[in-house]
Amino acid sequence: MNAIVQPSVVSLRCYYLEAKYECLRLLRTPSFVLPSLLFPSIFYLMFGVLLGGGRNGGDAARYLLASYGVFGIMAPALFGFGVAVAQERERGFLALKRALPMPPGAYLLAKMAMAMLFAAIISLMLATLAMTLGAVTLQPWQWLALLAVNVLGALPFCAMGLLIGVFASGQGAPALVNLIYLPMAFLSGLWLPLQALPAIFGKLALVWPAYHLGQIALKVVGRDAGGSLAMHVGVLAVFTVAFFLLARARLVRSG
Amino acid sequence: MTEHRAALASLRNAHKRYGKVLALDGVDLQLHAGQVLALLGANGAGKSTAVALLLGLLPADAGEATLFGQSPQSLAARQCIGVMLQSAGIPDAFKVRELLDLTRSYYPAPRSFADCVAMAGLDGLLERRYDKLSGGQQRRVQFALALCGRPQLLFLDEPTTGLDIEARQGLWRAIRELVGEGCGVLLTTHYLEEAEALADRVVVLHEGRVAAQGSVHEIRAHVAQRRIRCVSTLSADSVASWPQVRSARRNGDRMEIVSDAAEAVVQRLLAEDAGLQELEVHRAGLAEAVLELTQDADDKSAFKEAA
């Protein structure tokens, strides 16, 4: 009658399947896929290529390539975590998964992998438009660096989305994410340079994670405000860890 | 571990408070192999909280929850359980096969697809999308997800809500089969006939405390009273004053008497009213016993509600 506990066999297969089915779930949700993939490209076509093309030697096309990249990759991270976690938590699916022997990391890694995959696709779409229609010329390392910044840059916004997802209701989450996402993108200089706004916004921008990622991306194309790379990376790392720990504390306390 | 060597899972003096509400106020609970424990009680009695503590979804404020001698958070312990929650909230977009595939991957030695299909009655449903299934079919899919990992302990939270009688009895058969193989089950249910059909032991929770526990038979015996109904000309007030009569009330020409010793009361009734008709004596069922046990705490005159 002794309780028999087999040693924990952490199968890598469940990590793979978790990611595979998260991917399938997203692909079967057009309201997620279409806006998150198409909006950055459409905005870039309109403001970077059609309106900004050729002016100042393609300067706008280069600036917006970096800033819309960051703007674009924030969406799948924030929505993929914020809305999905809120809904799965509210509907009880997260509780079921936590009760089942799912390794907690598998859930998070699957969603992170999808946010990074979407970030890579968005980056490649923007890069293709910039290279062809936008006539942006960059060194090979710059193209690669932008891709890397965008893919890795999704992580702080995954953590931010997770934090939103553990607090918001399933119904309220999309509105809440938009309420944070769009103003933050604007105030971080992702739509137009902060120099175009009153000086106070330039100072205020330091508190937005999106500003710091935007600065790293703009640094790649030589259009940043001159802050140190280590400072921006450090701030993003602190944000990421803080969001994650807060989210975990909330989840452990109240389910 | 030493005290509860035989228990697969246990709560020991568990307390849990949500703000001002004390959801669990010192609950002890043990789940054993090959046994169905039914956790009964009204909404808000603490059933869901007790389950959440055992599953590691919530931490206890005080006291202890263990699963296979470990913390319920431990992955190794959870690999020995299967779970069917009341609101599973499974995303609509998945096919049944995909849900099973993913859930099976969490376990070291899962049952085959074919076994899961056979045990949960999912014939022909594997390629269907979850949101295209009827409520009863969805419930069976959830049951399949609960048993697919070859669990030693099953948590079934309202497993047959929304099932028709045939499907419900099919599920009961499957549960009995698993229990016969040595699986322990924690069952929470609103259908007391389900507890009567399946449970070896019953724990009745009321306002966060264990109000009663024992076998179904013992719980029923908690309510020693039986109800006597008859058509009689005797006055309810005078019958109410007899020894062994707890209460007597008149409903039109029918009288209803609650008594701890029905035989003696029936004897006297027949002696005093030769014209007495339509005599019925009922023992309390589990439903009445639970109602009585939980309402007793609030209101001594609650028995009439059981009618």
Give me a quick take on this structure.
The complex is a heterodimer of chains A (255) and B (307). Chain A is mostly helical.
General description of the model:
The complex is a heterodimer of chains A (255) and B (307). Chain A has 255 residues and is mainly α. Chain A is 75% helix and 0% strand. Chain A has one domain. The longest helix of chain A is centred in the first third of the chain and has 32 residues. The mean pLDDT of chain A is 91. With 307 residues, chain B is of the alpha/beta class. Chain B folds into two domains: 214 residues, Rossmann fold; 60 residues, Alpha-Beta Plaits. Chain B contains twelve helices and 13 strands. In chain B, strand 8 and strand 9 form a beta hairpin. Chain B starts with 6 loop residues before the first strand and ends with a helix. The N terminus and C terminus of chain B are likely disordered. Classes of the chains: A mainly alpha (255), B alpha/beta (307). Chains A and B meet through helix 1, helix 4 and helix 10 of A and helix 2 and helix 3 of B.
Please give the structural blueprint.
The complex is a heterodimer of chains A (255) and B (307).
Chain A: H1 12-27, H2 30-50, H3 59-90, H4 93-99, H5 104-132, H6 140-167, H7 173-187, H8 199-204, H9 209-220, H10 229-254
Helix pairs in contact in A: 1-5, 2-3, 2-5, 3-5, 3-6, 3-7, 3-9, 5-6, 6-9, 6-10, 9-10
Chain B: E1 7-18, E2 21-32, E3 36-40, H1 47-54, E4 62-67, H2 75-78, E5 81-84, H3 96-104, H4 113-120, H5 135-147, E6 153-157, H6 165-180, E7 184-188, H7 192-198, E8 201-206, E9 209-214, H8 216-222, E10 226-231, H9 236-240, E11 245-251, E12 254-259, H10 262-272, E13 277-283, H11 286-298, H12 303-306
Parallel strand pairs in B: 3-7, 3-8, 5-6, 6-7
Antiparallel strand pairs in B: 1-2, 1-4, 8-9, 10-12, 10-13, 11-12
Question: What descriptors fit this protein?
Answer:
heterodimer; A: 255 residues; mainly alpha; 75% helix; B: 307 residues; alpha/beta; Rossmann fold; Alpha-Beta Plaits; 2 domains; 6-stranded mixed β-sheet; 4-stranded antiparallel β-sheet; 12 helices; disordered C terminus
